[in-house]
Amino acid sequence: MSISSEHKPLGKQVTGSLHTLSPIVELNVGGEMYTTTLSTLKKHPGSKLAEMFTGQPKLRTDSEGRFFIDRPGTYFKYILEYLRSNQVPTQCIQDVYKEALFYDIEPLIKQLEDSPQIFGELVGRKQFLAHVPNYSENIELMIRIARAEAVASRRSSVIVCVVRTEEDAARCQDALNSLDMDKKSVVKFGPWKAAPGISDLLDCIQMDIEAKGYKISFQPHVAEKGFRFKSHDFFYKFLFTWW
Length: 243
Known about the structure:
Blueprint (H helix, E strand, L loop, with lengths): L23 E6 L2 E6 H4 L6 H5 L14 E3 L3 H13 L7 H11 L2 H8 L2 H14 L5 H14 L6 E8 L3 H13 L7 E4 L8 H13 L4 E6 L14 E7 L2
Parallel strand pairs: 1-3, 4-5
Antiparallel strand pairs: 1-2, 4-7, 6-7
């Protein structure tokens, strides 16, 4: 009597309905190998992960016949542990959260968003930065200016003007008119209507630029003698160190 296809390992099979194949699944996730069950992967029917293994196979296989998912394999073990035992990870929270979003596992997403790390980022910092006009664009502008000045230099600096209120914005413009520099090279942040202050915004700027791999520091910018405003009220120098 011949062996029917339903007894063949799922990881070796690329055709036919997944409903009729072996419940044991072999996976290659970004080079990391996993073995689990079909029911574990389909535990949350509305998720993208479940859809990958519903009906006809929707994934390519590697040379060994394992289903291949082109995502970071390191963090998939936390996804799998949650599916197996409902255990919410306590390590690599930010990275696991990205994977939970990709696989669209809604219960895990919600539980991770309640963690201090994600809650603080989403509800605190991100909500604050949403009140700062053109924040992301200004971060990219700072990086472009710094890179343009990096030729044959160890460091390059970017002058930032930070204003919290409309009144400060007007005073900042007067100060800019008195500065002996190219005004186009000054990056302006603000004003905004939210509780965090200037020091909080400066920390956010440094945090987000460092997250892109740059080595950066900042300090109040002291203008030359004769400047008719206290420049450190508005202006800060961000220093990029290249080597």
